[in-house]
């Protein structure tokens, strides 16, 4: 296994949104995070997660190819969880923490499993740093608004393809549900009025009294919704949209390889290439949200140097994945040979020791 290092590798550039991009973060009430400097920020995990999944696909494919076998079964469930998320089904990680530090063993584990070394797991810090992505707050917009429509109301000719019995049932349901929906709308207006009354209440006693009336009103609405014929929920309802970063926005983006070994750079490049085939971030992907393309400058800063050295450039878009720079191309092309020397089924120090013990016995 090669022990040379390129130094501290920084991959810095930008992502450009091709479609609206939205992310749902916990406790953010469907809002995107803001910085104190008038920017919108997406956490680094928003891209780190998709990249980790892409890295697993890359490694699975290369391992299968090196062994001349199908990708199916290359990794078992424990492997997939550990490589894809850092989750330990074997519980060996807990045991190794109790046994104390083993720096030499950690080095050997990282050499044997560079994917785990890059992305990490509990007790093993990842060597790939992933920065947040930022853009101007003026890039924010509401996207995805609309309304669902009943297909038979939108296109009455579809009824021609139903049997007479189904057509009669459909007409009955539409008429009945129309009346129920009218009552539901009226009850919801009353609930909204109670909500205003609740917010205006000055004492806890008043709020409690109004709260009980609101609970009663909600129960009435729920009962009406349950009384609908056919599906539990109405087909027709408005879609409010979500706060999003507009298409055409530029987000700053960077990655850092804390240990710049060529194998890590090669795996990162293969991973970014894999991600570029379906370059989507965030949610609402079924509606086309989150598509991006990007470009990066890659530098390496060796110990003792007063400035970094440029290694090349990366770009990905609808036309493909593009690299400039011999160091980048060599790292990319050398990865399959590195993979043959690795063992991605070894995730813990305990598993490493068991493997080394078997190798000594043989």
Question: What would a concise description of this structure say?
Answer:
The chain has 362 residues and is an alpha+beta fold. It has helices spanning 45-67, 77-85, 92-98, 103-112, 114-119, 151-154, 164-200, 204-226, 262-276, 326-340, 349-361; strands at residues 8-17, 39-42, 128-130, 133-136, 140-143, 146-148, 237-239, 242-245, 250-257, 292-301, 309-317, 320-324. The chain has eleven helices and twelve strands.
Description:
It is a single chain. The protein is built from eleven helices and twelve strands. It starts with 7 loop residues before the first strand and ends with a helix. By secondary structure, the chain is α+β, with helices and mostly antiparallel strands. The model has no long low-confidence stretch (mean pLDDT 87). The protein is 45% helix and 19% strand. Helix 1 crosses helix 9 (262-276). The chain is elongated and about 75 Å long. The longest helix has 37 residues, at 164-200.
Query: Which parts are unreliable, with pLDDT below 50 for 5 consecutive residues or more?
Result: none
Shape: elongated
Topology as H/E string? EEHHHHHEEEEHHHEEEHEEEHH
**Count of discrete alpha- or pi-helical segments spanning 4 or more residues:** 11
What would the keywords be for this entry?
362 residues, 6-stranded antiparallel beta sheet, alpha+beta, single chain
Question: What's the arrangement of secondary structure elements?
Answer:
Blueprint: E1 8-17, E2 39-42, H1 45-67, H2 77-85, H3 92-98, H4 103-112, H5 114-119, E3 128-130, E4 133-136, E5 140-143, E6 146-148, H6 151-154, H7 164-200, H8 204-226, E7 237-239, E8 242-245, E9 250-257, H9 262-276, E10 292-301, E11 309-317, E12 320-324, H10 326-340, H11 349-361
Antiparallel strand pairs: 1-9, 1-10, 2-4, 3-9, 5-8, 6-7, 10-11, 11-12
Helix pairs in contact: 1-2, 1-9, 7-8, 9-10
């Amino acid at each position: 296994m090669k022990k040379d290092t390129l130094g501290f590798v920084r991959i810095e550039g930008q992502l450009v949104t091709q479609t609206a991009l939205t992310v749902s973060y916990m406790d953010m009430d469907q809002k995107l995070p803001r910085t104190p400097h008038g920017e919108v920020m997406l956490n680094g995990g928003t891209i780190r997660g998709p990249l980790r999944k892409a890295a697993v696909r890359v490694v699975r494919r290369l391992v299968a190819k090196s062994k001349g076998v199908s990708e199916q079964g290359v990794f078992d469930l424990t492997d997939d969880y550990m490589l894809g998320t850092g989750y330990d089904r074997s519980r060996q990680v807990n045991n190794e923490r109790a046994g104390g530090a083993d720096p030499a063993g950690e080095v050997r584990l990282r050499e044997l499993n560079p994917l785990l070394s890059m992305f990490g797991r509990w007790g093993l810090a990842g060597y790939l740093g992933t920065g947040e992505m930022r853009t101007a707050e003026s890039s924010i917009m509401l996207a995805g608004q609309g309304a669902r429509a009943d297909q038979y109301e939108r296109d009455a000719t579809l009824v021609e393809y139903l049997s007479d019995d189904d057509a009669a049932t459909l007409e009955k349901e539409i008429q009945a549900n129309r009346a129920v929906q009218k009552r539901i709308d009226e009850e919801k207006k009353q609930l909204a009025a109670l909500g205003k009354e609740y917010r205006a209440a000055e004492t806890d006693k008043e709020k409690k009294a109004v709260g009980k009336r609101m609970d009663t009103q909600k129960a009435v609405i729920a009962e009406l919704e349950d009384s609908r014929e056919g599906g539990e929920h109405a087909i027709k309802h408005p879609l409010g949209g979500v706060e999003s970063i507009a298409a055409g926005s530029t987000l700053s983006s960077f990655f850092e390889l804390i240990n710049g070994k060529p194998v890590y750079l090669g795996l990162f490049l293969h991973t970014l290439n894999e991600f570029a085939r379906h370059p989507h971030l965030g949610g609402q992907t079924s509606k086309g949200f989150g598509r991006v393309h990007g470009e990066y400058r890659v530098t390496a800063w060796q110990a003792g140097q007063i400035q970094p050295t440029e290694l090349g450039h990366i770009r990905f878009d609808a036309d493909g994945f593009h690299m400039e720079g011999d160091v980048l191309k060599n790292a990319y092309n050398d990865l399959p040979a590195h993979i043959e020397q690795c063992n991605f089924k070894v995730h813990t120090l305990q598993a490493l020791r068991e493997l080394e013990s078997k190798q000594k016995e043989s």
